[in-house]
User: Fold this.
Amino acid sequence: MTTFRLTLEYDGANFDGWQVQAAGSRTIQGCLEDAVERVCGQRVRVEGSGRTDAGVHALGQVASLRVESRLDAPALLRALNGVLPADVAVLGAAVAAGDFHARHDACAKLYSYRIWNGATRSPLRAARSHWVAPALDLTAMRAAALNFCGRHDFASLQAAGSDVVQTERTLHRLELAGESRGEIEIQVEGDGFLRHMVRNLTGTLIEVGLGRRAADSIPELLERRDRRLAGPTAPAQGLTLIWVSY
Amino acid sequence: MTTFRLTLEYDGANFDGWQVQAAGSRTIQGCLEDAVERVCGQRVRVEGSGRTDAGVHALGQVASLRVESRLDAPALLRALNGVLPADVAVLGAAVAAGDFHARHDACAKLYSYRIWNGATRSPLRAARSHWVAPALDLTAMRAAALNFCGRHDFASLQAAGSDVVQTERTLHRLELAGESRGEIEIQVEGDGFLRHMVRNLTGTLIEVGLGRRAADSIPELLERRDRRLAGPTAPAQGLTLIWVSY
Assistant:
């Protein structure tokens, strides 16, 4: 058995997210397991660093798998890309330590969330960003963002109904690039993320940018640990997993 | 009657190009004429600055129309965006001089052609760029590009079968940004373009970048006025019309 580490890019638009679900759903994990089975003749589990939601993209998702194969890593990469559908590709493949696990061993991740802040909708940006028409106050959003950085209990930003108990996470970096009335990119780097955390954080920052919420209200929001107090979940198509570090 | 000038953005992927054709084809011009008819109650011709091919995108196409309407320009913009399909939008609308014509009056245009020069295909870039796997020699491509700048007869780069007789055009600028093994953008600004000219020029530059054609072979290529001597037509999805000036 060989353990491989794969780096993956995918366009999430036509996937029901990462994780294999009920029959009939189209998932990235399912496509990869199908591809590995075709190439290696063996059905094995492909573990991702995390379960991206339906519609979320990745430029550098990492996955691990253990499989009996005569292929070396470059040959596995070529073979998988030959059978995978057009909206998912293997960018890199390497032999990893036998016990390497893409989720358990992940140290940090970077996500990018894109907002199109133009006055009119943008057909060329629609598939990869969230359109917010009123001009956003980036200065207020940047001030609010500082309050999320560092180690905090992010229970207020966790998807309603999640049963994760340990909700403390550390955000190493939360930056807003771009400008009002243009393309805005929020980059969030942290040691781990709760379900919907980046999208709920983005929805909350947008409320600040629209003047509906004060930048200095964030510490209390975090303290209250109540999902109902945060902003709405920003739509999936704006979110891309950029890299995972180990 | 009022003459309006519209600035348009569209994702060309699901259009059979700009120009209204046989029944059953889906064109940007057709969608706009339908939208104007719904909003103004009158079927009129919408003229574009040029006829983008099937699959070509626009970030700043310009169109003109003359119509009987009680709407002012901002109201027309909002009304059209309310009825247009998601892959085309009006970014700007203004009342123009009565005889303004988007094609006849155009002075210059800027096109962008994007190449993804990664070793593996890129699902997130596929819809908007052309994948070239071998590393491209950008230095040679830039040297070749200089030979296209200025006033030349571009008959060699015109789509086979075109009946345009006056094939001289002036390229004001032809720049390659980016780097080998990454995203490359070719920007071409000129006073006018023959059918397929930017895509044939790009296909020719790619041959130079792959070492299949010498950078200094371009003057002779232009002199010969023979389409068969130029490179293949680069695929439509990499091309975007950025702006038109008047």
Q: What stands out?
A: Residues 2-95 of chain B form a domain with the Alpha-Beta Plaits fold (CATH 3.30.70.580). The longest helix of chain B spans residues 28-40.
